[in-house]
Amino acid sequence: MKSIVHADKVLQGVTVIIEDLKSHPKCPHGPTLLFSRENQRKFYACAACRDRKLCSFFLWQDELNKLSQSKLEVWEKERKKFLKGINHKKRFIMLNKIKALLPNKRTFCQTCSMFTLEHENKHVEHSLLSNITDYQLEHPSEIMPALENAKKEAQYLFSKESVQFIVNTFLELKYKHVICIGTPRIHEYIQSNVKTLSSILLDIDDRFHNFFGPLDFCWYNSFNNHFFFEEAKQVFEDFLKGTNNKDTVLITDPPFGGRIEPLAQTFSAISAQYGKNKLPMFWIFPYFMEPQILNSFSDFQMLDYKVLYDNHSLFQNGPKGRKQGSPVRIFTNISPSLIKLPNDLYKFCQDCNKWVSNENKHCKVCQDCTSKNGQTYAHCNKCRRCVKPNWQHCFKCNRCAQQDHKCGNILFSGVCLNCNKKGHKKLQCPLLNNTKKRKSKFKQAANKKLKH
């Protein structure tokens, strides 16, 4: 439900160092993350905000043990100030009072993000939403103004069509419990429409305290696996215990501009906390982030289903939408053969044993349905792979590229997802190639022994 950003300029060339966060200093958003920029000093910064204007916390790692007591007290004061005024139990009591009123007596102050009663005059000059229906109380994401800061929690919300598809898929797969991380519309739909499913919402938007009880919503930061209140952490642990380590699925729609590494650490931790059985996951993310996700979760596969959103024109169908359809996909550790996609826009590929988009044609050479971006890819014999239809093979560059490209060696400016070194991609990683060669030699030797 978040903003789509290819990369934040402030984080280009920055590496997230994944380690236990217990020893890390805390900002109001929980334990900070440790970053490094090439060979420079390592530093701690906020896990949730990718802009110092939103959270000013910054600390060089080598200064951690030199902190004065006064500095620690300032940070603790900031943390308490951030949490001040949020009492989930009191807000739940207010919600029940509002539910007991007629719709024309119900008022929500959008300025203060709280319900108000008629005799409370302090909200008179604020932005007020009145005549709130029962449906709106159960679907707060449809009445609350969407948060718009792309470097923290900018909200893009699933369309009803995508919500129904996802929840129906959960039902077909016989799940009974759903962990919704940053997916309020999935939680809302389950709570109000599906009695056979139980769900819990974990989200960084604290406004949901007004609409869901303490057993249904936890104020949470997914980038550091942080619950803002200990009571909420206990609620989630109890929810996991109640699943008996079965029939449970996790669905998440994190900010598209956020770092994948800490998210992967969080979801791995939840999976370990879940128990011995594998925790099924549905990770909603753009198709072009597939290499990064597979680097963290090698057992994940990308479905062809195009996830639609209500409040972003590029993520919708129709004249205002992207020509190739929404670029957002579902990444999952569930076999794609078990997930049936809608008949009108998708088809079943017998060779791949999975549902694919109508424009995705099976390549007999690659032995796969290769389209990623909503176009029909074409196979290039020289490159030995399928490429976008508007690309042509360039003999000077010895690769396929756009027709108007500038010839010459293109140096990869990013970092290898295997060895974390610059200058090459994971596919060209010499360490990975050496491993493949060793495995190949081992197989050949094993086959020779079997023949003898």
UniProtKB/TrEMBL annotation:
Classification from the root reads: Eukaryota, Metazoa, Ecdysozoa, Arthropoda, Hexapoda
Identify the residues that the record assigns to the CCHC-type domain, covering every copy: 416-430
List keywords of the entry alphabetically. Cytoplasm, Metal-binding, Methyltransferase, Nucleus, Transferase, Zinc, Zinc-finger
UniProt GO MF annotations: nucleic acid binding; rRNA (adenine-N6-)-methyltransferase activity; zinc ion binding
PANTHER family the UniProt entry points to = RRNA N6-ADENOSINE-METHYLTRANSFERASE ZCCHC4, ZINC FINGER CCHC DOMAIN-CONTAINING
**Protein's UniProt name:** CCHC-type domain-containing protein
Q: Name one GO cellular component term.
A: cytoplasm
Q: Which Pfam families match?
A: N6-adenineMlase
Predominant place of localization: cytoplasm
